[in-house]
Amino acid sequence: MASIAEPIARLIAELNKLPGIGPKSAQRLTYHLLHMPDEEVKSLAEAIRSLKEKVELCSVCCNITDRNPCPICQDEQRDHSKLCVVERPSDIIPLERTGKFKGVYHVLHGTISPAQGIGPQELKVKELLYRLQDNSVAEVILATNPTIEGEATAMYLRQMIHPLGIHISRLARGLPFGSDLEYADDMTLGQALEGRQEF
Which of 12, 41, 7 shows the shortest CA–CA distance to 25? Predict the structure, then answer.
């Protein structure tokens, strides 16, 4: 990229690091940004800066939030006796969209994956077990993705939670194996929530 101006080459390289953005997409985005009005570019830059400065993890559920505790944890209308465990913050969005779940969440921030050197200690498992100590949770719904890592994580959590005497359920098998919650359609996800099974 010797013939391209350094700021353009640098932005292409940075955008190319984003998931789903290949070199050609990064180049198109860069030239689009170059021709955008200054105010729009500044607004985008401010939104990115604000994302990094103002977002933190909820001290209760480990979801990302700009208020601590997050709005879901603060909501007294929700059923705090039902706790849905998900892998990532982005998994909460499709579950909320179904309108079927009125409980609260816990975000693990990943799955157990020995091949990648990720064990339970790298996840928010300790925080989950701490939440279950006060006996206010009657049911834990394991909503990890139907992948090998998601299943391994669910099995591990079941072993840790079962001795506490808390009812444990798993999303029904309406979700295809190997897919992510983030990409499931609302109807499939709603049926999986309603048809969750003993685990």
Answer: 12
Q: What's the whole-model pTM score?
A: 0.79
pLDDT at residue number 2: 58
Nearest residue to 191 (alpha-carbon basis) of 95, 89, 107, 105: 95
The per-residue pLDDT of the chain, averaged, comes to: 92
Q: Is domain 77-198 in CATH 3.30.428.10, yes or no? A: no
> Is residue 62 within 8 Å of residue 127, measured between CB atoms?
yes
Taking the C-alpha atoms of residue 67 and residue 59, their distance in angstroms, rounded to an integer, is: 10
Three-class SS state of 29: helix
Taken in order 66, 69, 75, 79, is the CA torsion positive or negative? positive
Kindly report the CATH number that applies to the domain delimited by 6-54.
1.10.8.420
Q: Cite the beta strand spans of the chain per DSSP E.
A: 56-57, 64-65, 79-86, 103-107, 139-142, 167-170, 197-198
